[in-house]
Each structure stands twice: as structure tokens, then as C-alpha cells.
Amino acid sequence: MIEKTIAILGSTGSVGQQTVEVAADLGVKTEVLAASRDVKTMESQARLLKPRTCVMENEDAAKELKIKLADTGITVLGGHTALLEAAACPAADVVFNSVGGSAGLEPTLAALKAGKRIGLANKESIVMAGEIVNRTKKECGGEIIPVDSEHSAIFQCLNGRSGAEISRILLTASGGPFFGMSRREMEGITPERALAHPTWKMGSKITIDSATLMNKGFEVIEAVHLFDVLPDTVEVVVHRESIIHSMVEYTDNAVLAQLSVPDMRLCAQYAMTYPERVPGLMGRLDLTALGKLTFFKPDFENFPLLALAYDCIKAGGIIPAALVAADEAAVEAFIAGKIGFTAISDVVSEAISRIKNIPSPTIGDILAAAKEARGIASGIVGKQGVTVAF
Predict the structure, then answer these.
(1) Are 132 and 106 a contacting pair, CB within 8 Å?
(2) Which residues, 6 or more positions from 55, have their beta carbon under 8 angstroms from its beta carbon?
(3) Residue pair 281/25 in contact by the 8 Å Cβ criterion
(4) Could you tell me if residue 191 is left (phi over 0), alpha (psi between -120 and 50 degrees) or otherwise beta?
(5) Is residue 272 within 8 Å of 6, Cβ to Cβ?
(6) Rounded to an integer, what is the distance from CA 117 to the centroid of its chain?
(7) What is d(CA 226, CA 222) in angstroms, rounded to the nearest whole number?
(8) SS3 track for 135-188
(9) Angle CA(85)–CA(60)–CA(57) in degrees, nearest 5?
(10) Per-position pLDDT tens, the chain of length 390
(11) Half-sphere exposure of 187 (CA within 13 A, CB side)
(12) At a CB cut-off of 8 Å and minimum separation 6, what does 204 contact?
């Protein structure tokens, strides 16, 4: 049994559910579970892990859960303030933040202000406000252990070494379900096709982002902030097998890679047990069964959001936050059938071009920029004026 106490935010999402599996398998004491509105999943998790407190950000969901857990003695709280209090939970040694999208920023900051170790699966926190997150971490004595498979791999390959020794970070990408297709070939892609990721089982938003390579663009920005490197130090490599989760090339040209079967439970477990390693639920890697590992350069022309992400991190300021929000609006419009697949990048690019940058922004500037970019992107979608017929 691991002698740590944890809190899991976003426990009912894809990564959150896998984190719960790991906690149950290792017998880790769970103080708090928090989610938005999925009462059925939360009830099941609460009965499995027996936390002291469950939080539902949606007030109506909290009322329903309270009734369902009336026989357990578990305290049920509702609302956004309760979520932020859960992020700063005094009894938790590790706070897992698996809250989806830009909504994860405030919980990340709340946990770091409380000096917590965060198992971070919410990349938007770093993308939107990387400098503020890092400053808060340093000032308040917090710690970030990445839970994204790629950044967990980089973290493991670095093993405490400094950025001055890094020549390149080789960030691997599966290439998504439309690898090798031209922009014209992708014009008629439906949400159903885009949601069929070749390797990972994820939520709908991140799955669409993986199909457009926007998710990989976010990961480039995340790597810059997490590992204190320049944008051009991060190189994306398409690796279809998703066995090498990322690599680090050092200044002597030695390359260290982290390999495993594609299983997010490994990343969650490593953040939970770090610096120790223990047996878990993950399968063993059989390289002879694979036979080969392949690598390709990314297609910046037909997947322009990856190139846009590099431009945004180089611009800095409020632009990365605007990128996150504009993409959220565009992906929502695509899933709703309001725009086509290739229009996602058109909407995002147009929205970003209309944002006036603010260097060295405050958290208020960042949140305002996200709101403005979402509004601009939604307006662009509205002016297209038709529902796409798939």
C-alpha cells in the first residue's frame, strides 16, 4: 500500500477514471473526489474508494449525489468554490487535476498556492498561463508531475537533469486517424470518424484535437513551460505505434526514450508513487510482437493548427490562452454539425489573428483573452450560417 493520500479532480472523465482504477489497485487513501455532473460514475467511485468528501461542481448534481450516498457517511459538497477547496485539500499529498479544458486552470493554481504536488492531466493550465503557473509553483513550494503520456515520458527521461543539458525534446504523436490525408480529403469527415482515435480512448474534445493535431500543438506549448526550453527545442515526431511516448536528446547527442504499452494508468501511477516504482495494472511491452517502430515528420501544411501552436508560444502573452478558447468553440461547433472538420483550423486561425497581444499578462488578462477569443470564434461560426450535412 502506498503511504500517500490523494485527491482526484475530474474523476469521472477518461483520465480521472483511470486514476481511480490505479488508486483502487494500489490501495491509496483518497480524501476527495471531484467532478462536474456525472452522478452515476461518481457514486460508483465513491463507494469504491470511500473518500471523506465528494464534490460536484454542478449544484443540482450535488443534491442528487447527496441522496444517493446518504447511507455512506461521505460528505457531498456542490459548487465552484467547493471544487477549488478540494484542489487545496490540506490532507492530500497529491492532487490529480483531470478537469477538462480551460476550466482546469483555477484548480491548478489553487493547488499550487497550497503548496501541493499536482499530478497534472489538464494541459490547458500550462498552455494558458504557463508563466503564472510556474511562478506560483516556485513561490508557494508546489510541484508538478505531468500525467500526459508524452510529458510523463519526458519527465522520466530527464530524471532531474537541467534544461541546459537538453539538445532536443522529441515529442511523439500518433498522427491521429487522418494521418497521410490531404486537406481536401478531410473536408467531408464526420464527428463520428474524427472521434475514432487509432490508439487512445479519450474524451471527445481531446480526441478531436488529436485528429487536427491541435492537441499536439498544445503539448508543444506545455513542454516549453514544464521543462523550461525554447519552442524550437521541441520537435514533433509522428510515431504511429504509440510505443515510444517521447524522447530527450542531450547535448552529447545521446537520446533517452520511454517505452511502454499505450496505457494512461502508467502515467497516473507514476505521478502517484513518484519517485518510487511499483507493480500495477499495466501490461508488459513485447517488442518482438511489435516487429517494428516507425517515425515520420509531421504534416504542417494539411494540419495547420500544429504550426499555429508554435507561432502562439513564440508570441507568448495572452495568445496561447486565446488559442485554447478559440479551439474549444470551434470543436464544439464541429461536434454540433455547424462547421466541417477542416473549418476548425480556419475558425481558430481567424480568431487568433483578431486578438491584440498583452505581454506579461495577469491572470485577469488571460481569462479575459480566453473569453474574447471564444466569443470571436463563435461569431465566425455563426457567420458561416449553415449546418453541415454529413
Answers:
(1) no
(2) 32, 33, 34, 35, 62, 76, 77, 78, 82, 83, 85, 86
(3) yes
(4) alpha
(5) yes
(6) 17
(7) 6
(8) HHHHHHCCEEEECCHHHHHHHHHHCCCCHHHEEEEEEEECCCCCCCCCCCCCCC
(9) 25
(10) 678 999 999 999 999 999 999 999 999 999 999 999 999 999 999 999 999 999 999 999 999 999 999 999 999 999 999 999 999 999 999 999 999 888 999 999 999 999 999 999 999 999 999 999 999 999 999 999 999 999 999 999 998 887 789 999 999 999 999 999 999 999 999 999 998 766 656 778 989 999 999 999 999 999 999 999 999 999 999 999 999 999 999 999 999 999 999 999 999 999 999 999 999 999 999 999 999 999 999 999 999 999 999 999 999 999 999 999 999 999 999 999 999 999 999 999 999 999 999 999 999 999 999 999 999 999 999 876 444 433
(11) 3
(12) 195, 335
User: What would the grid cell of residue 284 be?
Assistant: 508488459
| pTM value > 0.85 | yes
Q: Are 246 and 337 in contact (CB under 8 A)?
A: no
282, containing H or E segment: none
d(CA 238, CA 294) in angstroms, rounded, equals: 8
Q: 5-9 and 29-35 as β-strands: parallel, antiparallel, unpaired?
A: parallel
**Which three three-digit cell numbers place residue 20?**
481511480
Distance CA 343, CA 277 (A): 44
List of residues 6+ apart from 283 with CB closer than 8 A: 261, 263
> Within the chain, where are the H helices?
14-26, 39-49, 59-68, 80-87, 105-113, 123-140, 149-158, 191-194, 204-212, 214-227, 264-273, 287-290, 304-315, 319-335, 343-353, 363-384
The CA distance from 152 to 177, in Å, is 23
Place of cell 491548478: 108
Sign of the torsion angle spanned by Cα atoms 261, 280, 216, 208: positive
Residue with cell 463507494: 47
Residue 162: is it exposed, middle or buried by C-beta count within 10 angstroms (0-12/13-18/19+)? exposed
C-alpha span between 167 and 7 (Å, rounded): 36
Residue 184, sorted as left (phi over 0), alpha (psi -120 to 50) or beta, turns out to be alpha
Spatial distance between the Cα atoms of 248 and 170, rounded to a whole number of angstroms: 6
Residue 298: HSE in the Cβ half-sphere, 13 Å Cα cutoff: 25
Say if CB 378 and CB 178 are below 8 A apart. no
